[in-house]
Amino acid sequence: MNRGLVILALAAAPAWAEPDAAALERLVRQDCGSCHGMTLKGGLGPDIRTGALGHHDHDSLAAVILDGIPGTPMPPWRPLLSEAEARWIATYLLTGGHR
Amino acid sequence: MTPTARLFGGAAPVAQSATPPEYLDQEEARPGFLLGKNTQFRHLLRAAALMLCGALATGAGAQATGDLGLVVERASGSLLVVDQSERAQIGRIEGLGDLSHASIVYSPDQRFAYVFGRDGGLTKVDILAQEIVGRVMQAGNSIGGAISDDGRYVAVSNYEPGGVRIFDADTLEMIADIPTGSKTVGLVDIPGTRFVFSLWDAGETWIADLSGATPVITKVTGMGTNPYDALVTGDGRTYIVGLFGEDHLTALDLWQEVPQPQPILPGYAEGREGLPVYKMPHLEGWALAGHDFALPAIGQHEVLWVDARSLKESGRTAVHGQPVFAIARPDGRQVWVNFAHPDNDTIQVIDTLTKQVINEFKPGPGVLHMEFTPRGREVWMSVRDAGRVMIYDTQSFVKLREIEAESPSGIFFTARAHKTGL
Description:
The complex is a heterodimer.
Chain A: H1 3-12, H2 21-36, H3 58-67, H4 83-94
Helix pairs in contact in A: 2-4, 3-4
Chain B: H1 3-7, H2 11-17, H3 26-29, H4 37-58, E1 68-73, E2 78-83, E3 88-93, E4 103-106, E5 112-116, E6 121-126, E7 131-137, E8 141-147, E9 153-160, E10 163-168, E11 174-179, E12 184-190, E13 194-199, E14 204-209, E15 216-220, E16 227-232, E17 238-243, E18 249-253, E19 262-264, E20 288-289, E21 292-296, E22 302-307, E23 313-318, E24 323-328, E25 334-339, E26 347-351, E27 357-361, E28 367-372, E29 378-383, E30 388-393, E31 399-404, E32 408-413
Antiparallel strand pairs in B: 1-2, 1-32, 2-3, 4-5, 5-6, 6-7, 8-9, 9-10, 10-11, 12-13, 13-14, 14-15, 16-17, 17-18, 18-19, 20-21, 21-22, 22-23, 24-25, 25-26, 26-27, 28-29, 29-30, 30-31
């Protein structure tokens, strides 16, 4: 059997503990994008491109994603996302993965 | 032609009763020609010749626009030109920039579309030629637009810089700038060359009268916290604002000299936990269903019913998720509802008489918009993730056709040209 193929197949298989990057990227674009714009430059919600998030670190941004900002339209995503997924999104936004 | 033949619908009376076009000579055009047989025959010949010339001049490709429409392809910055009767796409227009959350209004002759892009682009499109005929970048971030009742002006509401800008519909030259200092939402046209819009940050509604040399602005304060969208009824009388920051909506009677904000559905969510809203609802002119308005609740999985005359609550319908659009079929007998993430794969249909959900189905993830054919027989639905526009019969709920489209969102038929507030 071709060992290379086996390794490739294993590498391509989903790693169960890891967030599904493609699905999350899509969620950021399409669903965060409902308020923040598909390009994330803002809409009814503020600009969430990297340059506009200077006041956040990974922890604070993940917390905002999970629990929302009461009194504003930013909803808590905890019912829909795990902590690992929220952290993935925070990293994605803070490191400019969207560019 | 004998009088009898004429009575039973010969072609001649129809042709003769039409207003004589200017290019007929005076003798031909005078009303007396009905009397002379000879003149009548000559007139018929002339009419036939003119029709033939017309056919030759426009060619076999002549296309009326009354059953056409445009589908926004949000990610690729393009528009699909669609034909209702054929249930098909007949072309694609590209190069319109960021069309996420784009909307469209039409010129009174249904030939030109004005496309409002999220990136502040205002694009004028000729749907017969299927090409862009004008485009301006008028702001940094915009949310929608409207066209005046006389077709002269196109207005765009902007988030950045906050306000409304008004353009000549022919040239796209800016003729008025109305800064509001706020994100501006819920822009609609009303009779009298007027536009109405609301201020997200200030909780106000402004009425801009463009009928004179300079715009005259009437400001209505105290509309409520964070208006997120608004609608106007087809008669241009009632303007209803949805509020994110209040447990009610607010209505204005625009027929009053000084419209006063009137809270409607006060405390509709009182005592109940507000559910997360993953997408703001839209309010559409297509809200009147029979004698009631059907309105999406915010933070509750409900469609709220309001008596159109008294503005009192007339019922509630529990639905599948946070409603985004609650759109009445043009005859008002049904209301079709789509939902915010994570329920945006589902459609529910509510019967207006019983206010009960009579049908539910799942076209697939990302049902973003619905548009009825003008008399409501079909509904066209954008299913983003499937990359399809799906067409359903609204009587039998049978799917009639799918049309391929790239991440489709808004669907806009040209019949909107003749509706106030759409």
